[in-house]
Design brief:
- The chain is mainly α.
- The protein has one domain.
- Helices cover about 85% and strands about 0% of the residues.
- It has 5 helices and no strands.
- Helix 1 crosses helix 3.
- The two termini are about 15 Å apart.
């Protein structure tokens, strides 16, 4: 199997993993903890954010950011041309809609939550923090979800195109 094919398969797999992570988070995790009281919600979110920051997650998150552009580059000398454009579109969609949104949107909000001493928070302050956090964070995560799914679909189509 050619190197460019292996890279494309790995790019597709890693993009699919992240699409699944974002979808599960949006569809089940935030919906489930959204039913908790303000303090419980914030403590749960804080604990999950602290837990997810691990090497496996970073590899999964940044894998597509490296592999999709690399797959695009490796396809430059090959045919068909539409494969290059699909991979470039997948790369841009993932980089802008997942990585940039994560860095400029979700991470700063997570940092604020992480630095909050929730054991000492008043019910009023918990409500205020949750109100400033929950809807915005969830909306940004849905953007990441849709962009990761779009990039995944483009990568799948690229794999199918390459095999024909």
């Amino acid at each position: 199997m050619k190197t460019q094919t292996i890279i494309l398969i790995l790019a597709t797999l890693s993009t699919g993993i992240m699409a699944g992570v974002f979808f599960t988070w949006s569809n089940a995790v935030t919906t489930g903890i959204g039913r908790l009281s303000d303090v419980e919600y914030l403590k749960s979110f804080q604990a999950m954010n602290r837990t997810i920051l691990n090497p496996a997650f970073f590899l999964a998150l940044f894998g597509p950011a490296v592999l999709l552009p690399l797959a695009s580059f490796l396809q430059l000398k090959l045919q068909p041309q539409k494969l290059i454009w699909m991979l470039l579109a997948a790369s841009l969609l993932y980089l802008m809609g997942v990585i940039v949104i994560t860095i400029v949107g979700n991470v700063p909000m997570n940092t604020i939550l992480d630095k909050t001493a929730l054991q000492d928070i008043s019910l009023e302050d918990a409500k205020t923090l949750r109100n400033s956090f929950e809807n915005k964070w969830n909306s940004l995560n849905w953007i990441r979800t849709y962009c990761a799914i779009g990039a995944f679909l483009l990568a799948i189509i690229s794999c199918i195109t390459l095999s024909n």
